[in-house]
Amino acid sequence: MASRLRTRILSRTVTAVAVLLAAGLAIPSPAAASTKVSGTATGSEAISTGTWKATASVTSMTFTTNTDQLSTITNTGTVALSAVSYKVTVSNPTSGTPTFTIFTCAVAWVSGKCSGGAGTQVGGTFSKNSSTTVTSTQVPPLSGSVYLQVEPATVTSSVIVTLGTSISSPTQLRPSVKTDQ
Hints:
- The protein folds into 2 domains: 2-49, no CATH class; 54-166, Jelly Rolls, CATH 2.60.120.
- A hairpin with a 3-residue loop joins β1 and β2.
- The protein is built from 1 helix and 11 strands.
- By secondary structure, the chain is mainly beta.
- It has a 5-stranded antiparallel beta sheet with strand order 3-5-10-7-8, with no helix packed on it. A 4-stranded antiparallel beta sheet has the order 4-11-6-9, with no helix packed on it.
């Protein structure tokens, strides 16, 4: 009886670890104590507590020329994300009609390139005197980052682009992992 009980407990433990690994969840170890994977599930696996948050390293950019600028978006929460929204506000310059595009990259930008390519565009083209919210499915992993590049065109006078991040719960949280427990 005791042997059967131990086998059953071990089997459930192995199954739970396999499910976590298959879902890409980190299993904290003493070496990775800073990695946090937490949340409280209730009912049919809905997260009722936890922190979903993504923060930008640069939230306000002043453009006086057509030079790209960068911001790093970091998942500072405790819940994995499936999408993140950006509120992009462009000021009204004294002259000209500048436009902006935003691209994301999973790795840091090098010489204006994302691993040799253009990156993934977020939203369309942002014009002067506008405020738009757009969604990206390229998200930072827990305690990780994605990288934004804001690319201007036709800047002739000082214009400010402001970036804000937001997470819409529950639609932008990664779906919960289901087990047969």
